[in-house]
Write a structure and sequence with these properties.
By secondary structure, chain A is mainly alpha-helical. Chain A has 30 helices and twelve strands.
């Protein structure tokens, strides 16, 4: 069925795809890839390998390549190591283990046999710095010494971290998720997944988390996991030579990253298509799932949390929730939305200031200053002194009978002996009131300091601080509702479900709902957020409160601005990111967006058989376009194809060096047969093999809505605009982004790269 | 920035989109929709409504429309009602409750106070038919009477069901999932989601499940949920008038269907994009999630399973699994893959026979015959007599201390008193050996009868029978391994993990793994399958065994044929379904696929200003194409647009009736200005508004791989092929499907619809 003409055509295509020149098909840094082309190149490679190896060998090769997915053991392992190291170094700020300095506080006391369960926090082997240095454990001077040591360690860790990042791996800073989103959407940032980035990000992540700064390890862990994925993909040419295939691996690695960050494999699988991945083929779903599971199980076998649970904050509540509680849950959702808006606005304003003023020139000083302030303010308050994950964990917890926390200092009814699990609501004791004040102060501090911390030149994640803000607010609301219900159980709203002596309000659940709301407000995640939270509790029971809060928070935050923090940072940095979620509803046409505009000089085009080598070389030198449309002649302007700059240059260079008779006056032709030339003209140069004979075209009347859809779904880099077959102009991804920014009343020049 | 030329162009476009004729924009039955067009129409509607209503009113309208999602309460309610009705009618085959005939066996005995927990199955109020009719409960004659009553009821139910389907709603038969996949991919089958289909499918589903046929209610429940979704969407013009938007609702409804079928909301959310949805915008993810949750919670509040659990088969295992057990798990995976292959081949062969021979003419007789055979063979065996869901539930269960089932008839060590949960492995008793024989017979029967049952003209799902086959095989393997481990715990493979007195093998887990393997082999689901199974157990613990079995099963089954049962039925019925998962890797070009082929008469085109009304009318009459490309002139063949038949016909008719001076000799023009005509020529007819000025084009050199990708991702209906701006031909979705079938060595003429 294949006609002769088509065969010769595909013969040429084959030449073209065989990549005769070494750097054809690779992209330059900060450029956008062409998904359709990458896909077609992969199919081609597939066919070629298939032709060489017979079925058996091919299957074997395939198996070897696929076994490479085992490198996904790495993120799990790294996450485990990071957790252990952070544990140790956080405790190092307070004291040291005498039996073995590499033990954390908990490990130190576990290994010592002298401690009972009640005194599990106090053991002679663990010494605070004051005990070790001046043999004092109480008193003002001991307190000040410990305070100073705490600040010193924090400064040391922070200084080390920011220096390492500056010297060895500038890409290791930040959470990495904005860049991951952009790169996965088809942008090239070389070195972003490099081995140095992997190493330095892992080490500095430990340092900054231990230094007590208000940041989390979740976002950076996703970046680290992607680096692992990239390291693996560099081992196989199938992935390393094809930017499209490489992004499939990276999508799966991102899922693995979330999976180990929270111990939530299914949440990780959903996070990947919902948040970071742009071009998510269905078969990636299965691989992501596999990656997420392998990573989760590696982490569990390392068991850094010491509870043989997969999850970071395992909670078990004993009471259901009641309809009336939806009201405070929705209030928490509103709080989360407001916090998200406030945080995004302030953080972006501060980051813009950092970019545009002198401030940005002293990143080390900035980190040191923020660390110093954090440490000085944080130490006196027990809720900010400890690590943020521990704080969240405590806030989420239900008050069991064995709980010694200040938050569980309720006044017990001495006459009652009850099973451990089912403690009725009790009046709050002194400890709870103290805790409320401290939590309120900690909340304000956390809100302020996080705004200044996120975006500094160190690895910094947002999930944990956001969750902490929400958990503190939630716990306070929860305790408030609980005490209200205890003291006023005759009120009409409590009468139906909260009799005296019943366990009706679980403040820990409020903390969890608050955390979900705040995280949702900042990141605008929905499904994956709820699933992650669901995996933390492991019960369907509490999905409705979580969903109610997440939806409210998203609605409230969206009312003030559609962008989540990651999109806001993408815009701030001017990355060319075409969001899948943005709907383009304006009534503009392709003709309004294409270049050249009315009055601009005409498009630089090549003709199929009338330009000389010199003409083309001049054109290439004088312009910096990535490619040139090829037309039949300047008069007819009928489009026949598209030649890429990066293929044209080596092809001409190559021909000039190796092919005889090619001089500046040689006519360059893109047709199958050379044009008819005068008798004494020099040897013509055939360049059909660098010509893309199937450029993507739309007509000038195509609505931009359709054009945006095509760019998104097919991952195009550029698209030619024609009318009745005549070339009118070109639309690049950057033009589309500029136009979208313009329509949204933003500065179109903020999109910087191409 | 919008230039004047563009404005006039968009003015015309506006005319065109304003739908001046009543039936413009609707599709005929068994036609394919154009996704890009539907999307653009929705944006247009959006803009129009936005312009009329001001922001406040618009938000309100939006809220009302979105509150319509509450109609998703319906699937949950229906599922609950179906469960209750099936319970009652299944028991009706064995006996009746004297206190209230509408009570099922369990409800009857629960409400009677005379029964103890031990005798919960026996209560005087519940009477078997023999007790009621001849006052005998034991003995051969009682047995025969009960046997006969069982067969009679089964036949009655089946006859009612098949008659109802035949008379009222022919679309209510089958599982519906192949049709749902096809329709969601953009095909029109009118009446498939009708109210009659909803009603009849619900009623007949109860009847056929109760009749004891080897079929499940899960697939049909997805269809029922989609019908509910369609019913909702018919209430709002936003959805009912736009086939694209309607499909978004249906995707969410499908998620709700799976969610209620298994009580697995997250599994449902993943099922929708993985299995049924074709065009799955991200915002649908959130709606699906919402739909799935609402449905699940409605079902729970109805509480048909009486255990206040969300899930159909809730299990709780007390022991972990061991590495060595992976071997039997993988064996079960192989079994699942083989079963899947066998089932698909035999079932398709039988269904093809039904389609092509006389057999298909007697659907009622066929159903009666299969029901009779099923009832006759099933009754004597306790594992086939009961409902299949009960069977699966029993097979999944771990043997606790209170378990009275025959499968748990182990020989207890009289010296041991142990907590209830932690029973060590014990030698099998007589009951277990009997059960093994009965299970083996039941397995063979189930395998054979399911092949003949699926595809009859009644609602029939496959999930439950497949799971039952796997669960039976799995339980038998599990008991085998358990006894092997008990009797030979000195063998090297058992020595490490199975000491005497330990509870090391859980046969119920094997049943679950077997069920997952068999379901995977038949449907080729992966992620959603594992997530559904994970939601059933509610623990991450057993994901690895489930995954191992699901992957093995998929590999084994794929080795024999890539198609799952639903794809196989789609092919059998010749639906135009372009699978997202199929990779097209052949090296053909657009020119090889386009019509007209070499030697065929040229494409029927319209010219922009030289054809008369009569010419066009003749062309429309003589051909049956859905649309015609419009070119500048027959000589230049430069493409300017595409006119759809269903817009052209009413436009001409309209003009002839209402517009003065339009006669057969009137020149029809598609340009902005009328062509220059001789002085005495009749009034020309302007038809630019029916012209689509942005038809989708590719060049003849475009690889088919790219074309297939474009058709899939953009949901195109047709695409024009050009070379240097000249029109060469057209490719329709049907051409693409035919070409793909041809490349896969299938009969291209098997694709029947367009």
């Amino acid at each position: 069925m294949v006609s002769a003409g088509a065969m010769s055509g595909s013969g040429n295509l084959m030449d073209f795809l065989d990549e005769p020149f070494p750097d054809v098909g690779t992209y330059e840094d900060f450029h956008t890839i062409d998904w359709l082309r990458e896909k077609s190149r992969d199919t081609d490679r597939h066919r070629k390998v298939h032709a060489v190896h017979k079925d058996g060998a091919w299957a074997l090769l395939h198996a070897v390549e696929d076994s490479g997915w085992l490198s996904l053991l790495l993120p799990g392992t790294l996450a485990g190591v990071i957790d252990l190291a952070v544990d140790w170094m956080t405790d190092l700020k307070e004291g040291i283990c005498l039996s073995a300095f590499w033990y954390s506080h908990e490990q130190c006391c576990w290994t010592s046999n002298e401690t009972t369960f009640e005194d599990r926090d106090k053991c002679p082997l663990w010494q605070k710095w004051s005990e070790l240095l001046v043999k004092q454990s109480e008193g003002a001077s001991a307190y000040i010494l410990n305070y100073l040591m705490y600040i010193l360690w924090a400064l040391l860790f922070a200084f080390l971290a920011v220096s390492l990042v500056r010297v060895f791996a500038p890409y290791a800073c930040g959470s990495g998720i904005p860049e991951i989103k952009t790169i996965l959407s088809g942008f090239i940032i070389r070195g972003y997944w490099g081995k140095w980035t992997l190493l330095i990000k892992t080490v500095t992540l430990v340092l900054v988390v231990s230094s007590g700064l208000s940041l989390g390890k979740e976002g950076p862990l996703v970046h680290v996991a992607c680096c692992c994925g990239n390291f693996f993909s560099s081992l196989f040419s199938k992935y390393s030579k094809n930017e499209g295939k490489r992004r499939e691996v990276l999508s799966a690695a991102a899922a693995a990253g979330v999976s180990v960050a929270f111990g939530a494999p299914i949440g990780g699988v959903l996070f990947s298509p919902e948040e970071v991945s742009y071009y998510f083929p269905l078969k990636t779903l299965w691989r992501s799932f596999f990656a997420a599971l392998v990573a989760a199980f590696t982490l569990r076998s390392i068991n850094p949390f010491g509870n043989s649970r997969l999850v970071l904050f395992y909670v078990e509540y004993h009471t259901p929730w009641y309809m009336a509680e939806l009201f405070p849950f929705i209030l928490l959702g509103v709080f989360g939305g407001l916090w998200g808006t406030l945080f995004i606005r302030c953080n972006i304003a501060w980051c813009r200031r950092r970019k545009t003023t002198k401030l940005g020139k002293y990143p080390v000083l900035e980190v040191i200053a923020v660390t110093a302030i954090t440490a000085i303010v944080a130490y006196p308050n027990p809720y900010t002194r400890r690590s943020t994950s521990e704080l969240i964990s405590e806030l989420f917890n239900d008050c069991g009978a064995l709980e010694s926390s200040q938050l569980c200092d309720y006044i017990n009814d001495p006459n009652m002996t009850r099973p451990v699990d089912d403690i009725p609501d009790r009046p709050a004791g002194v400890g709870v009131y103290t805790a409320m004040w401290q939590l309120a102060l900690a909340l304000i501090f956390k809100i302020v300091i996080t705004i200044f911390t996120f975006g500094m030149k160190i690895p910094s994640g947002l999930f944990i601080p956001s969750m902490a803000v929400g958990a503190m607010a939630g716990r306070m609301v929860g305790i408030g509702v609980e005490q209200l219900a205890y003291h006023h159980h005759d009120w009409i709203i409590f009468r139906n479900w909260c009799r005296p002596g019943a366990d009706c309000v679980t403040p820990g659940l409020y903390a969890m709902v608050g955390a979900a709301a705040c995280l949702g407000g900042v990141t605008r995640m929905t499904v994956s957020l709820v699933v992650i939270m669901f995996e933390l509790t492991g019960g369907l029971e509490y999905i409705v409160p979580l969903m109610a809060a997440a939806v409210t928070s998203k609605w409230v935050a969206d009312a003030f601005g559609k962008e989540g923090i990651y999109e806001a940072h993408i815009h701030l940095n001017g990355y060319p990111f075409l969001d899948v979620k943005d709907e383009f509803t304006h009534r503009t046409l392709a003709t309004d967006v294409m270049r050249p505009r009315r009055g601009e000089p005409p498009l630089s085009v090549l003709t199929q058989g009338s330009m000389t080598v010199e003409d083309v070389e001049t054109l290439i030198k004088e312009t910096d376009y990535n490619g040139f449309p090829v037309v039949v002649s300047r008069d007819s302007e009928r489009l026949i194809g598209f030649a890429q700059r990066r293929e044209l240059i080596p092809a001409i260079k190559n021909a000039r060096q190796r092919q005889e008779g090619i001089v500046s006056d040689s006519v360059m032709y893109f047709t199958e047969e050379p044009p008819e030339l005068p008798a004494n003209s020099p040897q013509p140069l055939k360049l059909r093999r660098v010509l893309n004979l199937s450029p993507f075209t739309v007509t000038d009347h195509t609505p931009m809505e359709t054009v945006v859809d095509i760019f998104r779904k097919l991952g195009l880099r550029q698209c030619l605009v024609t009318r009745s077959g005549r070339l009118l102009g070109i639309i690049t991804k950057k033009d589309v982004l500029r136009h979208m920014a313009q329509m949204a009343n933003q500065d179109p020049e903020s999109i910087m790269f191409n």
